[in-house]
Amino acid sequence: MTSRIDTISVQQADSLHYMHPFTDHADLACRGARVIVRGDDIYLWDSEGKRLLDGMSGLWCVNVGYGRKAIADAVHAQIMQLPFYNSFFETTNLPAVELAQKLVSLAPPQFKRVFYTGSGSEANDTIVRMVRYYWELLGAPERQVIISRQNAYHGSTMAGASLGGMSEMHAQGGLPIPGIVHIAQPNYIESEQDVSAEEFGINAAYCLERKILELGAGKVAAFIAEPVQGAGGVIIPSISYWQEISRICKKYGVLLVTDEVICGFGRLGTWFGCDYFGVEPDLMSFAKGVTSGYVPLGGVLVSSGVADVLALKGGHFNHGFTYSGHPVACAAALANLRIIEEEGLVARVRTDSGPYLARQFATLGNHPLVGYQDSCGFMAGLNLVKRKADRMRDCVRFEKEQEVGMLCRRYMFDNGMVMRAVGDRMIIAPPLTMTHAQIDEMIALIGDGLDRTLRELRHRGWV
Ligand code: PXG
Questions:
Q1: How many separate domains does the chain show?
Q2: Is residue 54 domain-shared with residue 136, that is, in the same domain?
């Protein structure tokens, strides 16, 4: 079926007309894009018929894997019943209501309401407007500043990219927008501090307290963070970090926002990342795993503390999207959540497949190129180094310009394994459905990809 596709003409048309996200088009035109034509379970196929094991769940989203007929059927039925209606003018629709009820039942008990968006970026934009409006309603309009973190990823809209801490994104388009500031990320393995991970976590959380005191607590609206940083390179903080962050937010009356776009819906073996770290946020943004990416959907879960102020004092909240509460997207989400529940995927990641993945992934630490590896639920990362040492900070790194991570990513692809490179850290976030045998298969593919990378590096004389 796939062999009939003329890859070169698709690549040419792609290169002429399709502007890809986050892409150097001159570079892509030389290489030609890989054309993905089919997905099933944890595998993808390209237009040349090559099979790839998708270690990234699409882009951190296909939690239930590809080819789920139940989601396709739910989407088909909803399109035939009611493909679209808006939620603006005193109207609602059945899937949006049912999904709101479902999300509230899965979220921690403080969450009572849902605001729908089309993406994670829009969810975080919504949060910026919502928390500032909340403080206005409470008579504290000067509480405007939102504190985020360097190297965070919160999306690519003006507010999303501003909340994010990616300097290359800020460099284009005049970002960040006013009223958003960034503190250091809790990146233990890159730190010079000679302390335990727990102690480091507590020290890292103090950055938040220092920033609040510097700005004045009366100026700070909220703190936003991903429970585990995803796009930044799977940066896994200690429990102590989050416990301390939560204590500091409570002490200064600063709203705590967790961005659950990646960590939500089972990725860490809990329904939400905040459950894993035992903290109680006031707001949570979500997207991706809510529909397993089959149809775009995002949103904000709002605690009763915030929702009640908006509902009772708010009047009109002048914010919303055409596709807020899109019935087809909500139907897809309901079918997806049913699969996650019926197959017990969250508990499986927590008690069985997550610990198994951690054990198997740890064996990659023996590879001569791997200076450090760690994992949390179904997210994992390993650092490529020139010369190993006991601690990551003592390893000899490659030069940034050598782009060894990108090289390794290409070898992984060629070897049938989809993995992301963030600098020289190689990361995975595979579908939550993986069996032990599939985890073994993935680890073998990664090991082989690392061997091929090492051979090339030796050939180039870089190791
Ligand atoms: N928050 C987090 C934590 C994300 O990971 C968004 C918000 C934005 O969601 P939308 O749906 O607007 O894209 C994301 C998105 C990468 C990569 O390179 C990660 C994302 C998007 C694009 C690339 O890992 N995450």
A1: 2
A2: no
Q: What is the pLDDT of residue 4?
A: 80
Give the C-alpha separation, 66 to 408, whole Å.
25
Which amino acid residue places its CA nearest to atom 1 of ligand 1?
Answer: 154
* CATH, residue 131: 3.40.640.10
- Whether the predicted pLDDT of 2 surpasses 50: no
Query: Distance, CA 458 to ligand 1 centroid (Å)?
Result: 35
For 244, residues 6+ apart whose C-beta sits below 8 A from its C-beta are: 201, 202, 205, 206
- pLDDT for position 315: 84
Nearest CA residue ID for atom 18, ligand 1: 231
Atom of ligand 1 nearest to the CA of 230: 5
**Alpha-carbon gap, residue 191 to 210, rounded angstroms:** 18
CA distance 343 to 349: 11
One domain, residues 402 and 448:
yes
Q: What's the pLDDT tens digit per position in 172-222?
A: 999 999 999 999 999 999 998 999 999 999 999 999 999 999 999 999 999
Is the pLDDT score of 119 beyond 70? yes
From the alpha carbon of 124, which atom of ligand 1 is closest? 7
Are residues 231 and 285 both part of a single domain?
yes
Q: Kindly report the CATH number assigned to the domain that includes residue 442.
A: 3.90.1150.10
Domain boundary among 342, 371, 398: 342
Whether residue 425 contacts residue 346, with contact meaning beta carbons closer than 8 Å, is answered with no
The reply to whether 124 and 253 lie within a common domain is: yes
Q: What number is the average pLDDT over the span 109-135?
A: 98
- Whole domain around residue 415: which residue ranges? 34-64+346-460
The β-bridge partners of 45 are: 38, 51
Among 301, 317, 342, the domain boundary falls at 342
Query: How far lies 332's CA from each of 287, 292, 376, 450, in Å?
Result: 12, 9, 27, 37
Q: Give pLDDT, residue 95.
A: 98
* Angle of CA points 70, 435, 67, to nearest 5°: 25
In a domain, 189, yes or no: yes
Instruction: Please tell me whether residues 206 and 257 are part of one structural domain.
Output: yes
Pocket, ligand 1, Cβ cutoff 6 A: 59, 119-121, 124, 153-155, 160, 226, 230-231, 259, 261-262, 287, 298, 420
Q: For residue 298, which atom of ligand 1 is closest to its CA?
A: 11
Residue 1 has pLDDT above 80, yes or no: no
Q: Is the pLDDT of residue 163 over 90?
A: yes
